[in-house]
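Note to self: the last two entries modelled the partners one at a time, which told us nothing about the interface. This time every component goes in together.
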Amino acid sequence: MRGLMKAQILDGKALASRLRSTLADDVTALTEKHGRAPGLAVILVGDDPASHVYVRNKKSACKQIGIRSFSHELPAETSQQHLLGLISELNQDPKVDGILVQLPVPEHINPETIIEAIDPGKDVDGFHPYNLGRLAARKPALRSCTPYGCMKLLEETGEDLHGKECVIVGASNIVGRPMALELLLAGATVTVCHRFTRDLQAHIARADIVVAAAGRQGLIRGEWIKPGAIVIDVGIHRLPDGSLTGDVDFATASRRAAWITPVPGGVGPMTITMLLANTVQSFKTHLGDAA
Ligand code: NAD
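The predicted structure of the combined assembly is written out below.
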């Protein structure tokens, strides 16, 4: 029923492609000027098929814009100590501007210990407590990629975020929490909902901006959305037929929202793009070219 659809689509794929083209120009100029390309080390432990796909996509996105990627694919039984040793080498390696450990890691490895071992200046995922703390203290350094990408999408709407009622669904360290800090920094009034929230619908119903990141397919019903709201759907779920869908019921929500991100083609392409942007930012910082 396309005729009923009112919302404008926040096209993450198109925005990502514009940003990547600017980044590619930056990388070409900087590589020429400094005689080396930015470098991203990508570490993958184990053989989780989804993680392999993510890592392949990240490496190919790097290649497209001229970032060198250094791949470290380790067997599932790799010890935490061995992984920490590799991170320590990469922390010292002057060719490496960014270090990414693909999550989840196998159960015998503590992800927090791993994240905290990465030099915060090379933490291009923006997961290190130092970088989260910088964002909390209103002096962001390397920003978490998914929330950073959501902020770029919100910028596309042209809406002034000051004083807007923003409701985030999900409070994880990698999405919900840094998203709340980003929106607070932008002057919005922020509510964070999570699994213990009572009456999620009432929170959503008063939101000018909804960011859905609960990881629950179709949790946010279209009829809950305030007419004219902006809806950013971070959730990704694969359906039995292989297609992807989000945390928001798109068909109904798009009849009420003013703007909405599709899944796929919304937040997903922006996350990888911000990883590239962070790698370039960290390269510039390492070269003393941060201006
Ligand atoms: P997570 O499981 O770590 O956190 C989920 C959060 O949602 C928790 O804070 C939990 O309390 C809350 N929650 C769960 N059920 C809820 C409910 N019924 N009502 C309200 N809150 C509820 O997940 P995550 O790593 O933050 O990822 C969330 C989703 O975003 C997943 O679908 C993931 O695949 C997706 N994701 C997408 C991208 C992207 O690039 N598009 C990046 C990261 C994560």
